[in-house]
Amino acid sequence: MAKEDVRVKNIGLRGVAVADTKISYIDGENGILIYRGYRIEELAERSTFMETAYLLLNGALPSAGQLERFERAVAQAREIPALVLSSLERFPKNASPMDVLQACVPMLGTVDPDLRDTSREANIRHAIRLIALVPAVIAAWHRLRSGEKVLPPDASLPHAANFLWQLTGKRPDLQMAHDFDVCLVLHADHTFNASTFACREVVSTGAHMYAGVAAGVGALSGGLHGGANERVMRMLLQVESEIDSPDKIASWVKNKIDKGEKIAGMGHAVYKTVDPRATILKEISKRLAKETGHEAWYAYLTRIEDEGHKEFAARGKSNIRTNVDFYSGSVYAMMGIPVDIMTPIFAVSRISGWSAHIIEEKFAEAQEKPALYRPEAEYVGHYCGVIGCTYEPVSQRG
User: Fold this and answer.
1) CATH number for the domain including 65?
2) 3-state DSSP call for residue 230?
3) I need a surface site. Which of 15, 123, 292, 343 has the fewest CB within 10 A?
4) Is 142 tagged catalytic?
5) Distance CA 215, CA 271 (A)
6) By the 8 A CB rule, do 321 and 309 touch?
7) For residue 26, what are the β-bridge partners?
8) Is residue 214 part of a domain?
9) 236 shares a domain with 177
10) Domain extent at residue 250
């Protein structure tokens, strides 16, 4: 194969293995996702986000005592440092929540007493603080921009429920709190996606965890990686306003695909069948739709899903199926979460996976990873012969 062909084929590092990992695995052909050997379906049904975060960070499920200590450590770290809180009060109220979060992560690092401690134990403590503080920062920012008082954490509430309380000012019922906890489990990790690779690449230089996580948040803020659940929700609201019956969805879908437009939440870079996380979220969306009076949202989504699959299959693209974002947007909206907070919610969960990958990157055995990520590039600019171009003084340039 010619060198040029390799460069084109590997654009974006698609299909290129850059390091080993023991954290998560995806079988895109069969719709399988595992964390540390456990199927996502079993974790969603039987585990909790706190337990899953411990699993990702430590490589094994915790004992009852280990889990209790981990949950207590996270709960005790929820108080936003004064430096960060005062900065949140000064940000423009129209700032993007993702930009605000990315700005705050390095500030959290500056007040971490273990910042210069490079031991594995210190990095676990960094991760615990970030797992506690990322949701706290997002909730505080939303309250401040809305002209409302920042709410203190409630030590009596589990992690997921406490976030909903600090964000909305309402203590969720047990079922909604459980549903949100399941959402966090589903989004906790997904191998070497763009944001996770950004985290790992940065800390491969020896940078600390906060620098790596700031890079991950930045990568997630880009529309080609994060934001799909927001786009699905905006699409759903548009459909609801323009179409008076789900029976008209078929023509809407066909017209959209005929024009070459994308259907938000359909298709994935890895999965060639239904994303297993989407199946779980679909059931949560169905139940919440009944409980909150949004049956129409669920009806529109299921029709878009069905008609989309039919249209893509008819065009030889049967591998374009619904992904994790297709139903998560409606789930979050029915929990009272604003549309532009939906991508930050991704970070609330993924901070556990990012932290686990950063620790793996820092402490993996040398033969399992490169010492420093340093890919090559194909130079396609001016060459001017063997020895390069001849510099001309500015007075002699045409």
Assistant:
1) 1.10.580.10
2) helix
3) 15
4) no
5) 25
6) yes
7) 33
8) yes
9) no
10) 231-334
Residue scoring higher pLDDT (367 or 336) = 336
Supply 176's token pair: 């909604």
Phi and psi at residue 33, to the nearest 5°:
-130, 130
pLDDT tens for 36-74 read 999 999 999 999 999 999 999 999 999 999 999 999 999
Evaluate whether residue 301 is within a structural domain.
yes
> What is the rounded distance in angstroms from the CA atom of residue 385 to the CA atom of residue 381?
12
* Catalytic residue (choose from 142, 268, 309, 357): 268
pLDDT at residue 379 is higher than 90:
no
pLDDT band at 368 (very low <50, low <70, confident <90, very high): low
pLDDT tens per residue across span 27-36? 999 999 999 9
Q: Which of 187, 309, 325, 357 is catalytic?
A: 325
Q: Check 142, 190, 225, 309 and give the catalytic one.
A: 225
Nearest to 215, CA basis, from 357, 339, 81, 375: 357
- Token code pair at residue 386: 């063997």
Same domain membership, residue 192 and residue 75: yes
What confidence tier does 111 reach under pLDDT thresholds 50, 70, 90?
very high
Distances (CA, A) of 302 to 248, 250, 317: 13, 11, 19
Q: What is the pLDDT of residue 6?
A: 46
Written as one letter, the residue type at 371 is A
- Residues 38, 228, 212, CA angle at the centre, nearest 5°? 65
The pLDDT of 321-329, averaged and rounded, is 92
